[in-house]
């Protein structure tokens, strides 16, 4: 029979434009968040993290915004490049007791040259 | 500093066989977690080990098992392979299973069951 797969949301962006990838998390007690980038055939790679006592953190061409009120996380990539094409997913971590991590399903970013 | 190393990178097995995958964490990391990643289900947590003890387990059948050695290296085993076990198996290491350290992933082992 036909298999039903997980259809990742896809974001198509023109090279040079800014990209915004969103993530809704589930646990209001989560206190640490990470964005990962996964290229085809590779393992997820750490991009940037943010702790719950912050609402914004900047890296090189990337910015993460955290809105705890609505349990929302976003990743902004400035001047998107073809090498940014990948699946991006967020991880929420609750560190009370054993570290418990939950991963989002991911968003596929396609950069159009 | 070497990253997380998973071996082998690729594996083809026949239904009914068993397979063992290996993961060497970052030096000094004592927590190792295993995930199954498929297009249909995304990243699914298998289990986490710390100090040779399984600390947490996901919702997978008993055919999936693992262990951790005193040097923090970990292996996972899948017995009686099924076609649906075809997936990318990822290992991630962390300094500890407590606190918020996050995870560093390996490149994965691509398992194909035919």
Q: What would you note in describing this structure?
A:
The complex is a heterodimer of chains A (113) and B (114). Chain A is mainly beta. Helix content of chain A is 0%, strand content 52%. The model of chain A is unreliable at 1-5 (pLDDT under 50). In chain B, 37% of the residues are buried. In chain B, the strands form two sheets. In chain B, strands 2, 4, 5, 6, 9, 10 and 11 form a seven-stranded mixed beta sheet that branches. In chain B, strands 1-3-8-7 form a four-stranded antiparallel beta sheet, with no helix packed on it. The mean pLDDT of chain B is 92. Chain B is built from no helices and eleven strands. The termini of chain B are far apart. Chain B has strands at residues 5-7, 10-13, 19-24, 31-38, 42-50, 53-57, 64-68, 74-78, 87-94, 104-105, 109-113. By secondary structure, chain B is mostly beta strands. The interface between A and B is medium-sized, with 28 and 28 residues.
Attribute tags:
heterodimer; A: mainly beta; six-stranded mixed beta sheet; four-stranded antiparallel beta sheet; 0% helix; disordered N terminus; B: mainly beta; seven-stranded mixed beta sheet; 11 strands
């Amino acid at each position: 029979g036909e298999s039903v797969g997980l259809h990742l949301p896809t974001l198509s962006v023109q090279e040079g434009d800014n990209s915004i990838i969103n993530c809704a998390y589930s646990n209001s007690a989560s206190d640490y968040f990470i964005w990962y980038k996964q290229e085809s055939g590779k393992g997820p790679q750490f991009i940037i993290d943010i702790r719950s006592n912050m609402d914004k953190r900047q890296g090189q061409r990337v910015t993460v915004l955290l809105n705890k009120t609505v349990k929302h996380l976003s990743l902004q990539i400035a001047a998107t490049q073809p090498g940014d094409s990948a699946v991006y997913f967020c991880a929420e971590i609750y560190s009370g007791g054993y570290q418990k991590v939950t991963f989002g399903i991911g968003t596929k970013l396609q950069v159009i040259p | 500093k070497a990253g997380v190393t998973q071996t082998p990178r690729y594996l083809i097995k026949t239904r009914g066989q068993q397979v063992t995958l290996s993961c060497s964490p970052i030096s000094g990391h004592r927590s190792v977690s295993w995930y199954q990643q498929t297009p249909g289900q995304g990243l699914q947590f298998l289990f986490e080990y710390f100090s040779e003890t399984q600390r947490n387990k996901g919702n997978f059948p008993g055919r999936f098992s693992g262990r951790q050695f005193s040097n923090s290296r970990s292996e996972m085993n899948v017995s009686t392979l099924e076609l649906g076990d075809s997936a990318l198996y990822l290992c991630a290491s962390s300094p500890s299973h407590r606190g918020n350290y996050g995870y560093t992933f390996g490149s994965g082992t691509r398992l194909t069951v035919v």
